[in-house]
Amino acid sequence: MFDGKFISVIIVSAGSSSRMKSTISKQLMFLDDKTVIENTVDKFRKCDLFDEIIVVCPNGDERFYQDLLGKDIIIVEGGAARQQSVYNGVKASNDSCEIIAIHDGARPLIDTSDILNVISDAVKYGASALAVPVKDTVKIVKNGIVVDTPKRNELFAVQTPQVFYKNKYLQAYDKAASEKNDYTDDCQLIESVGGVVHITEGHYTNIKITTPEDIDIVKVLMKRGGDV
């Protein structure tokens, strides 16, 4: 489908889950009979597009995640911040890897057709990320005062997967590391070296579990059955 390109997915599951207000990591909370991270990994298994699946987990939890997810999954320890965690996952990818898809472990409702579409666009344009148009009017605020109102039709909420050529990612990471820049978004890393990131429009259901309310929303959406 992609001219024999070796494609790896890096699923980042090393966050602290501080906004969940729980002692249990959000990736390990249950959605019916499986944890969030199991549901996420299953979506990428079913795609049959990936030559390897790499999960980045909290430092010290490697054996637990390996037992939970199975021997076919490559488990890598995370770093102090997201950028380092993603890099650890990319470093663990096969030497033959050309394309990397980076996905949040806490997005278990990713639509399999969106995965295919964003990879296709990345191969075509060099880099692509799933995103959806924002629904609300967004205000730029400084010191509690509105200073600007961007045009809503130009604003997108970026999701994952975000897909890049591996060599471009590594080039961008090396530059960021040398300049001591730490980006929370993988697209920013590519943009920092002049890379152009294409947007693939996805679905609003591809939410990231961040707060306790999100777990309830995901459970409702899962009851619809099939891909959502």
Q: What does this protein look like?
A:
- This protein has 228 residues and is an alpha/beta fold.
- The chain has one domain (6-220): Spore Coat Polysaccharide Biosynthesis Protein SpsA, Chain A, CATH 3.90.550.10.
- The protein is built from 7 helices and 11 strands.
- Strand 4, helix 2 and strand 5 form a beta-alpha-beta unit.
- The protein is globular, with a radius of gyration of 17 Å.
- The mean pLDDT is 93.
Q: Main traits of this protein?
A:
alpha/beta; 32% helix; 228 residues; Spore Coat Polysaccharide Biosynthesis Protein SpsA, Chain A; two-stranded antiparallel sheet; seven-stranded mixed beta sheet; 7 helices
What is the residue-averaged pLDDT? 93
Helix content: 25-40%
- CATH homologous superfamily name? Spore Coat Polysaccharide Biosynthesis Protein SpsA, Chain A
Residue ranges: pLDDT <50 for 5 or more in a row? Answer: none
- Separate helix tally: 7
Measure the end-to-end span: 24 Å
Query: Which strand order do you get reading across the main beta sheet?
Result: 5-4-1-6-10-7-11
What would the CATH topology be?
A: Spore Coat Polysaccharide Biosynthesis Protein SpsA, Chain A
> Beta-sheet strand percentage?
25-35%
Structural class: alpha/beta
Quick summary of this structure?
The protein has helices at residues 36-47, 62-69, 82-91, 112-125, 166-178, 186-191, 212-222, and strands at 6-12, 30-31, 34-35, 52-57, 74-77, 97-104, 127-133, 140-142, 145-148, 156-165, 198-201. By secondary structure, it is α/β, with parallel strands linked by helices.
